[in-house]
Structure to design on (792 residues):
C-alpha cells in the first residue's frame, strides 16, 4: 500500500448553516462571483438567502448564472470573463456538481492567460496544470457528485464531443458549506440519481483497487450500506432531514479521497465510458452510470470474482460457497441492479432510447482519451475495445 | 448533525518512504529540530537513516532526544530552548505518540514567549491558545496514537500531577510520513498496546456520539473490525508488512477526525480517567485504557443498551432479541474484553499492582480538570464522582 493524500477543504456542516455563508466567505474575499445553474436556486429562495448573507457580511456579489448540466467549456469561459471584468477575488458555487465543477475551472482560469480547455485532460499532456486559483467556496444544493470536497472537475466541449476532467490540488475548494436543508426540495428522481452517483463513486474505487485493502474495503462498504439504508428513507419521505443529512455527508465522503486512500485505484472505467456516452447524448450523468455499472460488474466479476463475492456477502448478506463463487457474485450484482431499479434508475440504454449504433464509436472515443498504452481502458481487468462493446451490449 | 472539520495534514504513506524524508522536509525549512524518544530509533538505525535523508536534501539537524513516555512539560521546555538557541525553522518528530505530542507543543512554543504549560488545558481557560507554530513533520515509528494526523497533544506536569491536552488547528503536522517498515521492529507487547489504543480511540467516539450517526457508525465499525483482524495477523507474525501497514493506517484514521466527523462526540471519558490514573502511576497509556474501557462500557450499556447491542451484532456477529437486549450488549463487551486479554493487554488494575486506595482521588482530580458544570464527567451518560469510583472498582 503506497499513497499520498491531502484534503485541505474545510467542511462546515449543518441544517440552516447557509445563513453563515457571508461570515465564512469574508476572510477569503470581498467581491464574489456567485456561480449558479438554472433557475431552481432562484425559485426556491436559496439564491436570495445566499446573496443576503454575503452582502450582510460585506461581500459584494457578481452573478454568473446558467451553468448547464454536463457543464460546457463555453460557460467556463463566460464565467472567467465576468470575474475578470468585475474584479472578483472569490468564487462561490451554489448548485449541483455541474455548477461546482464549472466554478473550479473558472477560479483557476481567472489566474491563467490561456484558454481554460488547456486544463482539461483530453488524451495528451495538458498544456496547463493550474497551481493556483481564486479561493472557492462550494455550497452544494444536491447530494451527489462530492465535488464540494475534491479537486476534480468534469467539463464538456460540444465542438469536439469530448467530456473529460481536470484534477489537481489547486482545485480544492477552500470551504465546503453543507446545509442539508438545501437538499429538501430536490425532486425524487434527482435524489435517487444522487444516491446512485455516490454509490458508483465508491464501487469504482472498491472494485478497481490494485492492492489488498481490508480497511478501505470496510469504509467503502460502510458508505454503500448507509447510502442504501438512508436513501430508502429519503425516497420514502423527502422531508426526512436526518436521512437527507446522512446522504449528503455520504455523497461528500464517497469522492473526497478518504474512503479510497491507499486502495491504489487503477481507473474509473464506468465513469470513463459514461463520459463518452453523455458527450454524445445529453443524458443525466448518474443515469449513464446506473446503466453501465451493473454490466461492467458482470464483466469484471467473471475475471476476478473474489471482490464481488465479498460485496455480495457484506452488502447483501449472501452466503458464498467460497471466494471464487461466481454465482454468489452475480447474485450480489443482481441485487444491486434491483436496488437501482427500486429507486427508479434506468439500468438499460433502451430505457433512455439509446440504441447500439454507436457502441464501437463510444469504445474508440473512450480509448482515444484514456488508455493504458496497450489500447485498453484502465481498470480491473483492463478492457479492450471489443470488451467495451460487449459490456455496452450487455447494458443495451 | 452539525459539525466543522478540517484536516490539512498531507499524508505520505508507504514502505521505505523514510528515504524521502529530506526531500519532503526541504520545502518547509533548512534547520530541523529532530525530536526523538529513548534509544530505540538509534539502536535500529532509523535515526541515522532520517538524518542522512535530511542532510542529503540540505536540511541541517539539531538533535532533541530523550522525550519520555507520558511526555513531561520539562522535555517540552528543553526542546523549545534548544530550537531557539539553534535557530531551527522546522520540527521533525521521529517516534511514538509521546514524541509527536511533545514536538507539537515545542513547535508552537518556539513562537510563544510565555511558558508552554499555558497551552495545556487544565481546568480553567487556557492563558494561550496557539494560532501558529513552526512547520512540523511527524514520522511515527509506532502505530498507536494517531498523533501524526491530528491536532492534539497530551502533556504531563509531574509537579501538579496533571496530565492533560492541547487541541487546536495550529498543532496539525504539515506532513505525516507513514512508513510501515519502521513498525516492523516494535515488540509484541507494544504492538498490542497500539492496537488497543487505536480501537479505544474509535470506541470513545462511537459510544459517546450524541446524534444518530449511521454513516460514522459504519466507518467506526470498519476500523475496529480491521484492527482486530489485521491485529491478530501482526501479533502472530510481526514481520507481516501488509498487516503492519493496515494497522498503521487504522491507527491514523482512528483519531484524525474522519471517522468521527459529525458524531457530535460529548467526551472521551475513558481517556480522561486514564489520564488521571497515569498521572499518578507512570503506566503505559494503552494499558490504562484497556483496564478502564470494558468497565466503562458495562456502566454505559446499562444506561443506553442500543449502541452496545449494535456493537455486539456488527463486531461479534451476535444476534440480539431487540435493541434493548442488555444481555446481548454485555456479551459483546465480554467478547471485546476477551479480545484484549487474547492480545495480552491487562483488563484489571490489579494486574498492574494498582489498588483501590486512590479511586476517590482519581475521580475528584478528573472532575477538577474536566466536568460538565454539574460536577459530572462528560460522556454518555455523564458520570458523577460516585459512578466513576464504581467503574474503577469494577476494573479493579
Amino acid at each position: 500500500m503506497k499513497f499520498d493524500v491531502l484534503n485541505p477543504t474545510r467542511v462546515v456542516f449543518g441544517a440552516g448553516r447557509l445563513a453563515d455563508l457571508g461570515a465564512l466567505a469574508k476572510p477569503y474575499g470581498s467581491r464574489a462571483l456567485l456561480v449558479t445553474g438554472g433557475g431552481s436556486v432562484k425559485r426556491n429562495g436559496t439564491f436570495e438567502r445566499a446573496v443576503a448573507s454575503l452582502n450582510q457580511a460585506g461581500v459584494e456579489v457578481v452573478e454568473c448564472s446558467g451553468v448547464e448540466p454536463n457543464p460546457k467549456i463555453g460557460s467556463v469561459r463566460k464565467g472567467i470573463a465576468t470575474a475578470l471584468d468585475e474584479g472578483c477575488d472569490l468564487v462561490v458555487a451554489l448548485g449541483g456538481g455541474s455548477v461546482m465543477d464549472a466554478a473550479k475551472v473558472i477560479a483557476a482560469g481567472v489566474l491563467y492567460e490561456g484558454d481554460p480547455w488547456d486544463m482539461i485532460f483530453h488524451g495528451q499532456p495538458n498544456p496547463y496544470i493550474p497551481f493556483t486559483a481564486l479561493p472557492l467556496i462550494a455550497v452544494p444544493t444536491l447530494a451527489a457528485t462530492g465535488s464540494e470536497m475534491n479537486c476534480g472537475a468534469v467539463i464538456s466541449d460540444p465542438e469536439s464531443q469530448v467530456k473529460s476532467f481536470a484534477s489537481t490540488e489547486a482545485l480544492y475548494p477552500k470551504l465546503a458549506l453543507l446545509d442539508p436543508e438545501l437538499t429538501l426540495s430536490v425532486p425524487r428522481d434527482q435524489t435517487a440519481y444522487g444516491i446512485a452517483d455516490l454509490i458508483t463513486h465508491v464501487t469504482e474505487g472498491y472494485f478497481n483497487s490494485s492492492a489488498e485493502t481490508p480497511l478501505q474495503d470496510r469504509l467503502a462498504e460502510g458508505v454503500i450500506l448507509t447510502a442504501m439504508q438512508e436513501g430508502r428513507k429519503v425516497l420514502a419521505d423527502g422531508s426526512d432531514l436526518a436521512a437527507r443529512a446522512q446522504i449528503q455527508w455520504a455523497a461528500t465522503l464517497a469522492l473526497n479521497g478518504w474512503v479510497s486512500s491507499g486502495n491504489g485505484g487503477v481507473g474509473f472505467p464506468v465513469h470513463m465510458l459514461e463520459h463518452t456516452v453523455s458527450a454524445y447524448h445529453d443524458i443525466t450523468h448518474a443515469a449513464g452510470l446506473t446503466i453501465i455499472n451493473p454490466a461492467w460488474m458482470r464483466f469484471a466479476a467473471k475475471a476476478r470474482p473474489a471482490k464481488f463475492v465479498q460485496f455480495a456477502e457484506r452488502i447483501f448478506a449472501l452466503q458464498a460457497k467460497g471466494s471464487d463463487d461466481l454465482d454468489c457474485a452475480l447474485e450480489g450484482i443482481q441485487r444491486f441492479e434491483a436496488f437501482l431499479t427500486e429507486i427508479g434508475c434506468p439500468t438499460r440504454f433502451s430505457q433512455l432510447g439509446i440504441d447500439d449504433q454507436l457502441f464501437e464509436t463510444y469504445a474508440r472515443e473512450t480509448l482515444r482519451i484514456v488508455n493504458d498504452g496497450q489500447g485498453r481502458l484502465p481498470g480491473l481487468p483492463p478492457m479492450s475495445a471489443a470488451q467495451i462493446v460487449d459490456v455496452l451490449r450487455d447494458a443495451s
Q: What stands out?
A: Chain A is about 45% helix and 10% strand.
